[in-house]
Amino acid sequence: MPKKIKHTGIFFIIAFCVFSIQSCSDNAVQNTESRELLYNIDGIIEELGGDCSAVQVRTRSLGQFSFNDYSKIRFEFTGSSDADLSSISIFYIENGETVNLVNLQNRDEINSTDFAEVNSPGSAREIFTRVTLKSSICTGQIYFLQFRDLKVYAYRK
User: Fold this and answer.
1) Mean pLDDT, residues 24-34 taken together
2) Is the pLDDT of residue 24 over 60?
3) Cα of 39 vs its chain's centroid, Å
4) Fold designation for 35-156
5) Which positions ≥6 away from 152 have C-beta within 8 Å?
6) Pairing of strands 56-66, 124-133
7) Residue pair 125/67 in contact by the 8 Å Cβ criterion
8) Does residue 40 or residue 16 have the better pLDDT?
9) Edge to edge, what strands does the sheet with 87-94 contain?
10) Max CA pair span of the chain
């Protein structure tokens, strides 16, 4: 087989592969939802330290948010703790009841979670955070809990 035909064949094989890959990327599913940053606080939001002799709880309001035009909410944050029963929650109150949007119940969940996506409540809500430092082990050790770098995004319907 002449070299010219051999090189032309290789060129067509390479061209076919490149066009096939491009056409696959053109057919990729496109995210039609637009994400908006609603809230951002860099740095420490809450930081607790203490031994097992007392449970420490801190609750704070992040303010009022209108979720009317949003289908989902995404919370991005950093949490860390070495106390086994520590918790971090993000919630709102409806008819006197707490409705959790994020509820990390122990040190393992806190240390391994950096975001949570939930369905939007679909109306205006005051959003709160609550951190709890609690340990079941009493060795005299000082335990810690840190909650920081919170971003709240919302996806339009």
Assistant:
1) 52
2) no
3) 13
4) Jelly Rolls (2.60.120)
5) 37, 38, 39, 40, 62, 65, 73, 74, 75, 127
6) antiparallel
7) yes
8) 40
9) 56-66, 124-133, 87-94, 97-104
10) 87
Under 8 Å between Cβ of 98 and 105: no
- If you write DSSP's letter for every residue of the chain in order, what string do you get? --HHHHHHHHHHHHHHHHHHHHHHHHTSPP--PPEEEEEEEEEEEEEEEE-TTS-EEEEEEEEEEE-TTEEEEEEEEEEEE-STT-EEEEEEEETTEEEEEEEE-SHHHHHH-SEEEEE--SSEEEEEEEEEE--S--SSPPEEEEEEEEEEEEEE-
Contacts with 129 (C-beta within 8 Å, 6 or more apart), sequence order? 45, 46, 59, 60, 62, 88, 89, 90, 147, 150
The encoded tokens of residue 63 equal 């303010």
Find out whether 148 and 81 touch, Cβ atoms under 8 Å: no
Percent of the chain's residues with pLDDT above 90? 71
Q: Report whether 152 contacts 73 (CB < 8 A).
A: yes
Distance CA 148, CA 154 (A): 19
> In the numeric block, which tokens belong to residue 30?
């496109």
Q: Name which of 72, 81, 101 is nearest 89 in CA terms.
A: 101
Write out the two tokens for 103. 């509820």
| Cα distances (Å, whole numbers) of residue 95 to 92, 100, 102 | 10, 14, 19
